[in-house]
TrEMBL record:
One of its GO terms (molecular function) is pore-forming activity. GO terms for cellular component: plasma membrane. This is Hemolysin III family channel protein. It comes from marine metagenome. InterPro entries: AdipoR/HlyIII-related, Hy-lIII. Signal peptide: none annotated. The chain crosses the membrane at residues 12-33, 39-59, 80-97, 103-121, 133-151, 157-176, 188-208. The keyword Transmembrane applies. The keyword Disulfide bond does not apply.
Length: 211
């Protein structure tokens, strides 16, 4: 395998860097967890986060056979669903009342599982539809806004809301192929990746403050 030079120069770079940053940060997150529940919830979150960035970096940076590329593409899309559900896991298990948290967690992981099945077996869908599916899974939090408001401090709530807003901007830009920047160096897809990085950092800070 070698670097794929046919894509924008910065394609996958931010996610490659974030894989290593996330791995180190998540090691600290798990190390400072205080109970088995915190360790479990944060481990699931960490696996999802690192898997998303790692698989994305491989898919977008490496030049490989068509068969391998298609496999990585499926895994890349699956990784997004795992990351979304993984990000919900610490919030549901550590911050929300058990009943509300378990309901939300079941809904999100069920939808993520459906999204993973779709990513594996139904690969030819429009990018707008794919972006919409990601948003639907993430927006499952809305019926639980009141519970979140009661359970979380304003600081954590702002971090989670800001992260969700940035993820949404990224998904919309991905669907619209916007903004049109420099396609040889840093295009709309790279902006999408950058927004994912920013949102992931905001959510990591919020989750770290749950322990």
């Amino acid at each position: 395998m070698s670097i794929d030079y046919s894509r924008p120069l910065m394609r996958g770079v931010t996610h490659l860097v974030m894989f290593f940053v996330s791995f180190i940060a998540c090691c600290f997150l798990i190390y400072y967890s205080n109970s088995y529940l915190e360790i479990t919830a944060n481990s699931i979150y960490s696996i999802g986060l690192c898997a998303m960035f790692g698989i994305s970096a491989l898919y977008h940076r490496l030049n490989c056979s068509i068969k391998t590329k298609l496999l990585l593409r499926k895994l890349d899309h699956c990784g997004i669903f795992i990351m979304i559900a993984g990000s919900f896991t610490p919030v549901c298990l550590l911050a929300l009342p058990s009943e509300s948290g378990n309901i939300l967690l079941t809904i999100v992981w069920s939808l993520a599982f459906i999204g993973i099945i779709q990513s594996i077996f139904i690969t030819r869908i429009h990018r707008w539809l794919r972006a919409t599916i990601y948003l639907i899974v993430g927006y499952m939090v809305f019926p639980f806004i009141k519970v979140l408001y009661i359970s979380l401090s304003l600081y954590k709530l702002i971090l989670i809301a800001a992260g969700g807003a940035v993820y949404s901007l990224g998904a919309i830009g991905y669907g619209l192929k916007y903004p049109k920047l420099n396609p040889k160096i840093f295009g709309f897809h790279e902006m999408f990746h950058l927004l994912v990085v920013i949102a992931a950092i905001l959510h990591f800070i919020a989750i770290y403050n749950l322990i």
